[in-house]
Each structure stands twice: as structure tokens, then as C-alpha cells.
Write a structure and sequence with these properties.
Layout: H1 6-22, E1 32-38, E2 41-44, E3 60-63, E4 68-70, H2 79-88, E5 94-98, H3 101-109, H4 119-125, E6 130-131, H5 140-146, E7 154-157, E8 161-166, H6 169-192, H7 200-212, H8 247-268
Helix pairs in contact: 2-5, 3-6, 4-6, 4-7
Bound molecules: zinc ion.
Zinc ion (ZN) binds at residues 30, 78, 97, 99, 136, 160-161.
């Protein structure tokens, strides 16, 4: 396994911190970043510092138990969820946590991003489930995400924000950008009242490309992932998983049912 050299890791964490800040994905001191320096040594961002103004000497080296090995600052209290990703996934070299406004809106509303609307999102992002709420800094979030990090590429953290990871910090950051863009477009489409999904046939074509590219991760609901993988379902639609519905969605559903019933009655008269 090839790990990050400390100089490169330090430089890239500071660069990605500025990108998160410039993009408006973090407010005040929100968000945290980390990269893996060896099997059990992680370099991470400090608590209480804006990610737009990180300096190399602010970063902290910790082990997988969260004990500080080197550094003048304290790591973020949200480090535990990063450590859980590294413990569960030996292939992961970097983790990004941020609060991008539209993705966070979806996380608070409890709406997963599971519709196949854009080719890039189907291939690189896949389905993004909402992970059940946990109090920041406790073991609740690490325990909640453990169930998802083997099957997905990005997560919405209920009433909180978003989490991505990857083979390097730019891969994890770009997934955060793709996630926020997909959420923004989905939100705009909801405003227009016209959410046009790609057909199953078109999605299947994209999943074939995804498989050829060796990209893993759950795909939009009800579509086969290709040979060797079972039929994919969104997290919300998995057996036994709770599904949330908003008041306006419920009202729309009630209106549709009423219209259908009235139409049937009129037809029968
Ligand atoms: Zn957070």
C-alpha cells in the first residue's frame, strides 16, 4: 500500500481546506480533513480553526485510537468518524467532512440522493444515503457510518453535513463537489416541479461504464449494478430501513390519490 509522504500530505490538506472554504462548503470553523501517513498514522486538521486559513504547523498526527502523536494543536472532536473510515477501509487514504449548504439541507430533510439524473453523478457518486443522526464527537456517528462505508462513496449525515473519502484527498474533495452539485441540481428540479430521471436502459449503460472503470458503490434505486453484483437499492428502500416523507410530499401524494379516485368515480357514473 502506498501512503502519503508527510510533506505532500501537509500541502494538500491545506490546499483542500482553502477549496472547501472558497466554495462555501464550511462556515466558520466547520469541517475537518485527514490523510493516512501509514497503516495506523493519520494527519488531520485542528479544532477551532477555519479551513480557509490552515498553516502546515497546525496539523496534528494521531494514531487510529485518536491519541495525538505529534502536533501543537488538538484534533477536531469529529476525528472519530474519520478514524472509523480508516479502520473499516484499508484502501482509503483520505477523508473529507464538510457542511455544504444544499447537501446539508438534504441531510436535515432526511432526503437521500438516489435519483439517476446526471451521467457523471451516476458513475462517480452513485446513491448517497442519509445516515441516522448521532451527536457530534460521540461514538454515535462512527457507529452509524460503519454500516454504510463499504457500500457507498459518499454519505449525508442526518441533521449535520456530508462525508466523503477516497484514494487521495483530491478524490475525496471532488466527490464532495459532485455531491453538492447533485444536491443543488436536484433542489432546482424540485423547485421547477420536474424531476426527469434517466431511463433504466440509459442508467444500465452508465453502470457498464462504471464497472469498466472499476468504480464501486451503490447505484440509483432498482437498477442492476452489472455482472457479479446484486440489484442495487437506495438505502431508504432497503428492507427494514426507515423511510421518511415530508409534509408537502404527503400532501402531494394525498392529492394524487384523491384525483385518481375522483377520476374513477366520474368514469363509473
Ligand atoms: Zn460537522
Amino acid at each position: 500500500m502506498k501512503y502519503y509522504a508527510v510533506n505532500k500530505a501537509t500541502e494538500e490538506v491545506c490546499q483542500v481546506g482553502r477549496l472547501l472554504f472558497d466554495k462555501g462548503f464550511v462556515a466558520a470553523n466547520d469541517g475537518n480533513l485527514s490523510v493516512r501517513l501509514s497503516e495506523d498514522v493519520i494527519l488531520t486538521t485542528p479544532t477551532g480553526v477555519s479551513k480557509g486559513f490552515l498553516e502546515p504547523d497546525m496539523l496534528v498526527k494521531v494514531n487510529l485510537q485518536g491519541e495525538v502523536l505529534e502536533g501543537k494543536t488538538e484534533p477536531s472532536s469529529e476525528l472519530k468518524m474519520h478514524l472509523r473510515v480508516y479502520s473499516e477501509r484499508q484502501d482509503v487514504q483520505a477523508v473529507v467532512h464538510a457542511h455544504p449548504p444544499i447537501a446539508t439541507t438534504y441531510a436535515i430533510a432526511g432526503i437521500p440522493l438516489d435519483q439517476a439524473m446526471m451521467p457523471e453523478a451516476v458513475i462517480t457518486l452513485g446513491t448517497v444515503p442519509v445516515v441516522e443522526y448521532g451527536t457530534p464527537s460521540t461514538e454515535e456517528i462512527p457507529n452509524a457510518i460503519a454500516h454504510y462505508i463499504h457500500s457507498y462513496r459518499a454519505l449525508l449525515l442526518e441533521n449535520h453535513g456530508a462525508l466523503t473519502w477516497g484514494k487521495d484527498i483530491f478524490s475525496a474533495y471532488y466527490l464532495m463537489e459532485t455531491l453538492e452539485f447533485a444536491a443543488q441540481v436536484n433542489f432546482n428540479l424540485k423547485l421547477l416541479g420536474r424531476e426527469r430521471e434517466l431511463s433504466k436502459g440509459r442508467v444500465q449503460e452508465l453502470l457498464t461504464i462504471k464497472e469498466k472503470m472499476g468504480i464501486k458503490g451503490e447505484s440509483p434505486a432498482g437498477i442492476s449494478c452489472g455482472s457479479g453484483e446484486s440489484v442495487c437499492k437506495s438505502a431508504a428502500k432497503q428492507t427494514g430501513m426507515p423511510m421518511s416523507i415530508t409534509r408537502s410530499e404527503l400532501e402531494t401524494l394525498a392529492e394524487l390519490i384523491t384525483e385518481k379516485v375522483l377520476f374513477k368515480i366520474r368514469k363509473e357514473k
